[in-house]
Amino acid sequence: MLSNLRILLNNAAPRHGHHFMVRNFRCGKALQNEVQLKGRDLLTLKDFTGEEIKYLLWLSADLKFRIKQKGEYLPLLQGKSLGMIFEKRSTRTRLSTETVWSAKQQHNSPWELVRNANLRPTGLETADSVVLSGMTDAVLARVYKQSDLDTLAKEASIPIVNGLSDLYHPIQILADYLTLQEHYGFLKGLTLSWIGDGNNILHSIMMSAAKFGMHLQAATPKGYEPDPNITKLAEQYAKENGTKLLMTNDPLEAANGANVLITDTWISMGQEEEKKKRLEAFQGYQVTMKTAKVAAPDWTFLHCLPRKPEEVDDEVFYSPRSLVFPEAENRKWTIMAVMVSLLTDYSPTIQKPKF
């Protein structure tokens, strides 16, 4: 897919890392460990430690507070440029990224390299004349194959951000965690219940939840379980962090005692031909108040959108327990935090949240 860009990318300057000293305002002195983010790629949260992910959430909360609540002028990305690649259609990812980049603070706009909402392009041949590493500071790519992202990151000397792939959707999970941290005031000890397909969203939760001390109970139909290699690594993370990981085919078992009920589309982009088969396989997986009855008393609901009624009924989706709309807004603040952390030297100024 990326063969025609290799000469251009190989001619670019090598990337350099940067060390952030994370300040702990509660104790008044710097933490001993350093968070290294500037110049990094964000392809999967598997590559990030718990402290690094916490830093991104801290930065997200800081930017949201300073810009939205205090109305401060923060031209942090001014003069920077972003290339965007969309092999799949996008609403929230694209809109949140564009608002981050073209907000009044930045005075610039992202550059879309591949424009195709419904059909897979023939590759990045449509952008052969673009010198990615020489003309942009970062690239956000929504692609079919994770391997294409990995190749792009290997060739490029600028940060590559995963806007969604067949295996992972890390920027969505950052928004989910920020939403839960805002609602509960902490993340450690929460039990997440996934009810649905063993897809990229679940994979991203599996690669990160245990690093916060969160438990995961996931129910998928037989034949639709998550990738076995990812499951094996998630089991290792759970063991290392002393958390619970339950994989089952029973939605009520997964929901039992859970603080957070999470689902997603049963038919992802590129799976439309499987619709009839999938709808049959996922019978009984709709999240309803019956599901919520076995959850914890403080249960909440997340869905990354767009939502279909067979996945969750109206009573749950529009209930006061549903956090889907704050979750959608937080895509903006977490994407902003990702871009700021990968491209600038900015550090949070607010007190570090409790995780």
TrEMBL record:
**Coiled-coil stretches noted in the UniProt entry, renumbered to this chain:** none
UniProt keyword S-adenosyl-L-methionine present: no
Supply the EC number(s). Answer: 2.1.3.3
Quickly give the catalysed reaction: carbamoyl phosphate + L-ornithine = L-citrulline + phosphate + H(+)
Q: What would be an example GO MF term here?
A: ornithine carbamoyltransferase activity
Family, as annotated:
Belongs to the aspartate/ornithine carbamoyltransferase superfamily. OTCase family.
Gene Ontology cellular-component terms listed: mitochondrion
The coding gene here is Otc
Classify the source by domain of life: Eukaryota
- Domain Aspartate/ornithine carbamoyltransferase carbamoyl-P binding, by residue range, is 40-182
Q: Name one GO biological process term.
A: urea cycle
State the oligomer form and interacting partners: Homotrimer.
Listed A to Z, the keywords are: Amino-acid biosynthesis, Arginine biosynthesis, Transferase, Urea cycle
What this chain does, per the entry, is described as: Catalyzes the second step of the urea cycle, the condensation of carbamoyl phosphate with L-ornithine to form L-citrulline. The urea cycle ensures the detoxification of ammonia by converting it to urea for excretion.
**Record keywords: Transferase included?**
yes
Domain Aspartate/ornithine carbamoyltransferase Asp/Orn-binding: start-end pairs: 188-341
Q: What is this protein called?
A: Ornithine transcarbamylase, mitochondrial
Describe which pathway this protein belongs to, using the record's wording: Nitrogen metabolism; urea cycle; L-citrulline from L-ornithine and carbamoyl phosphate: step 1/1
Which Pfam families does this entry report, sorted A to Z?
Answer: OTCace, OTCace_N
Organism placement in taxonomy? Eukaryota, Metazoa, Chordata, Craniata, Vertebrata
